[in-house]
Inverse folding.
């Protein structure tokens, strides 16, 4: 029986082994995307996300931002043009100065990806990486072994099966009242509404959406909208995960966990370099959920932002899976 030379000479062929692992995982993501009617390849998402985050870019700017070769970027752009997801306008004869921008179809595809694909993928990768420790080469072997046992797509579908009847909704003016009511209920029950709470809950579009943030809702079958969470932009690449609440009627359905993973995925899709939250020790169940999702307690976040709420005595920073 032929052995696995990439494993046998792990250090020598590290690049090839990482490429093989990437192709294996990306193949699973393709299946998940196709399952919801999206034909986007995983390798195309970074380019689309760059355009979504920073606006129209030239080929040269995309090459510099993504640190890939110009031919690679050009091929990817050509394919995305064929798919109708990006548009090209040529201002100069120099090919590097083609200006690339998202089409309306491309923007819609990214919204759907952030709602229906990315949360599943992130949940699956979190599960895959849980508990990894030790030298890098050993971790790669463990990841490969785990994927052989349960593929990334199966892990993602298992996560979806554990959250039946749940759906993520985008903010609309009609849902502004639900955002206020859900959050006002839990804040009033546990603490008291502060002026900074009222400012956001009474004006979600002006305070959250218009400055570059986002609000997502979770809908439970038979119950309607049962939870909400916001991403408030507080600086370039900085977002506060805030105003996350789930109604008591949805307890036991994992609606909060489902919503949290969707919001983290949205923050990453929006180019968040720093994602943090502020809470209180009384919210022990929520803090445990945040820790499980990859948030850690952080003194720097407390020093920089903790004074925003009188009740704040917990500040957390998102560092990714396996943090807890």
């Amino acid at each position: 029986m032929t052995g696995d030379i990439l494993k046998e000479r792990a250090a020598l062929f590290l690049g090839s082994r990482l490429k093989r692992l990437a192709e294996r995982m990306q193949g699973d993501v393709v299946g998940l995307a196709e399952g919801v009617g999206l034909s986007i390849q995983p390798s195309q998402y970074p380019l689309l996300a760059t355009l979504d985050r920073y606006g129209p870019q030239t080929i040269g700017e995309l090459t510099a931002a993504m640190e890939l070769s110009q031919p690679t970027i050009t091929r990817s752009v050509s394919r995305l043009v064929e798919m109708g997801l990006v548009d090209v306008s040529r201002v100069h004869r120099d090919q590097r100065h083609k200006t690339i921008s998202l089409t309306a179809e491309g923007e819609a595809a990214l919204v759907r990806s952030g709602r229906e694909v990315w949360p599943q993928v992130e949940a699956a990768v979190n599960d895959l990486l849980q508990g990894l420790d030790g030298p890098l080469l050993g971790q790669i072997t463990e990841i490969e072994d785990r994927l052989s046992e349960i593929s990334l797509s199966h892990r993602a579908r298992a996560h979806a099966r554990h959250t039946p009847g749940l759906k993520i909704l985008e903010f609309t003016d009609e849902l502004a009242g639900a955002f206020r009511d859900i959050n006002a209920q839990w804040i009033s029950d546990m603490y008291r509404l502060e002026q900074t709470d009222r400012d956001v809950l009474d004006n979600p579009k002006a305070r959250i959406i218009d400055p570059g943030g986002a609000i997502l809702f979770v809908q439970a079958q038979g119950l309607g909208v049962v939870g909400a969470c916001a991403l408030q932009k507080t600086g370039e690449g900085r977002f506060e995960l805030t105003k996350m609440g789930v109604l008591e009627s949805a307890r036991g359905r994992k609606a909060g966990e489902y919503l949290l993973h969707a919001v983290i995925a949205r923050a990453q899709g929006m180019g968040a370099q720093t994602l943090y939250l502020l809470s209180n020790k009384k919210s022990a169940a929520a803090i445990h959920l945040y820790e499980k999702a990859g948030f850690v307690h952080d003194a720097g976040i407390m020093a920089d932002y903790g004074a925003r709420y009188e009740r704040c005595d917990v500040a957390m920073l998102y560092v990714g899976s396996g943090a807890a």
